[in-house]
Design a protein that fits this description.
Elements: H1 3-16, H2 18-54, E1 60-65, H3 72-76, H4 85-92, E2 100-115, E3 118-127, H5 131-135, E4 141-142, H6 147-151, E5 156-159, H7 161-168, E6 177-180, E7 183-190, E8 196-197, E9 200-201, E10 205-209, H8 210-218, E11 225-230, H9 236-250, E12 261-265, H10 266-309, H11 311-319, H12 324-365, H13 375-401, H14 405-410
Parallel strand pairs: 3-10, 5-7
Antiparallel strand pairs: 1-11, 1-12, 2-3, 2-6, 2-11, 4-7, 5-10, 6-7, 8-9
Helix pairs in contact: 1-12, 2-10, 2-12, 2-13, 4-9, 10-12, 10-13, 12-13
């Protein structure tokens, strides 16, 4: 039996039972569409996270207290007191870190903001006067605090756009006094809508001089983080080594395994988050792939029903000279065509839904959530759907091929 005749006959068989064909396609279509959606949305989220991190610049280093670890212990270590002002002063010396361009400590704590009868709970961060430059974010209204504000422990603060909205509505907050954890602060600036920068959501955070936050809100002289900007990306590793040796000298550490700090680069963070998001995406993809297996079982059941309904047709074909292989190829081709069509429809449906999700997320979150068409997922989805057709179509096809022609012609 010629291949083109087999294909033609298979299409005719599928067209003759359109409702059954549609319902059979549905399982495979949903499975492939789910894979496309998960991988597209996953890659889109990964791109946003990486863009946010790289927004600080590839020449940024982050110094954290404690030793590099994960889980709850990693969260607890941000409250260790191993990073102090003495470290900042030593790192500023060109003789210690020649490639250092900018440096700022960072402290933060939970905060309750109140203005009149309005209240809002979020976080306040403390930094140096150059923190705005390091973040590359400048107040949309008002101004950032100065070096004198840091030295004088001034009670001034720049608030995020959401804090402004919650406390002041459409009113101008510049010059107004608010309470932060029952301490008076004067609003001198408002950040534009920016989203997350270096783990801080600038829309929901307030920033004040680190000395003010330490003395009036935290009561600690240590830092949660130290941000360092290097003069060139090419000098990152050298600066990292210089910082490490300087801090070991400052902390009297001779054994590297006893380090009470660790340093991460933007590349380190990007690599870590890429691994995490990739694992998460693959986990969701494997769950979505289960529906392909379910769809394959449905195809096998439908094909077995089809074999039963077409026993006389099988007997007639054999009586006219069709071999067992001809019958096997006929039904196997129908199964593969079903899953192949389901895969193609699933790719189209998944792409359309993913594009819709990207538009929806852009509008809801106020950020550019780019649509990513996962070519690898489309290819995998298509070939897996074909394999599903082959795998689950073999048994019904062999069942059809094994029918006795005489008994088949007598079947009613």
């Amino acid at each position: 039996m010629k291949s083109n005749y087999i294909l033609k006959t298979a299409f005719q068989a599928l067209k003759s039972n359109r409702s059954r064909t549609f319902l059979t396609l549905l399982g495979v279509t949903i499975g492939v569409a789910s894979i496309i959606m998960v991988m597209s949305v996953g890659e889109g989220a990964q791109n946003i996270i990486i863009d946010q991190i790289e927004g600080l610049g590839s020449n940024m280093l982050t110094i954290m207290p404690g030793q590099r670890t994960q889980g709850i212990s990693a969260f607890a270590q941000i409250y260790l007191d191993s990073l102090t002002k003495k470290d900042i002063e030593l790192l500023k010396l060109k003789s210690n870190v020649p490639d250092l361009e900018e440096i700022s400590p960072l402290v933060y704590t939970g905060a309750n903001f109140t203005y009149g009868k309005e209240a809002y709970q979020s976080m306040i961060a403390g930094g140096a006067e150059n923190l705005s430059t390091l973040f590359d974010v400048y107040p949309q209204e008002g101004s950032f605090f100065t070096k004198e504000d840091v030295e004088n422990n001034s009670n001034v603060v720049i608030i995020g756009s959401k804090i402004k909205k919650e406390l002041f509505g459409l009113s101008n907050p510049i010059g107004e006094r608010i309470k932060i954890n029952n301490k008076n602060f004067r609003v001198i600036g408002v950040f534009p809508e920016k989203g997350t920068v270096s783990s801080l959501n600038l829309d929901e955070v307030a920033i004040a001089p680190y000395t003010t936050v330490q003395n009036y809100l935290i009561g600690s002289k240590s830092f949660n983080t130290i941000l360092v900007k290097v003069n060139s990306t090419a000098n990152i590793e050298r600066a990292k080594a210089d910082i490490t040796s300087t801090l070991r000298m400052s902390h009297n550490i001779k054994d590297p395994s006893k380090d009470d700090f660790y340093i991460t680069t933007q590349t380190d963070i990007v690599n870590r988050l890429t691994i995490i998001t990739t694992i998460f995406t693959m986990l969701l993809t494997s769950v979505a792939a289960i529906s392909l297996v379910v769809g394959g079982i449905g195809i096998m059941n439908i094909m077995l029903v089809s074999v039963t309904e077409r026993i006389q047709e099988i007997g007639l074909r054999k009586a006219l000279g069709a071999t067992n292989n001809d019958i096997l190829y006929q039904f196997l081709t129908e199964a593969v065509l079903l899953t192949m069509l389901g895969g193609i429809v699933g790719i189209i449906l998944g792409s359309v839904l993913s594009f819709g999700i990207s538009l929806l997320m852009t509008r809801i979150l106020g950020i550019t959530w780019s649509f990513v068409f996962p070519v690898s997922a489309a290819l995998i989805g298509f070939f897996v759907s074909v394999l599903v057709g082959l795998g689950f179509g073999i048994y019904p096809a062999r069942n059809a091929a094994s029918k006795n022609p005489i008994e088949s012609l007598r079947y009613e």
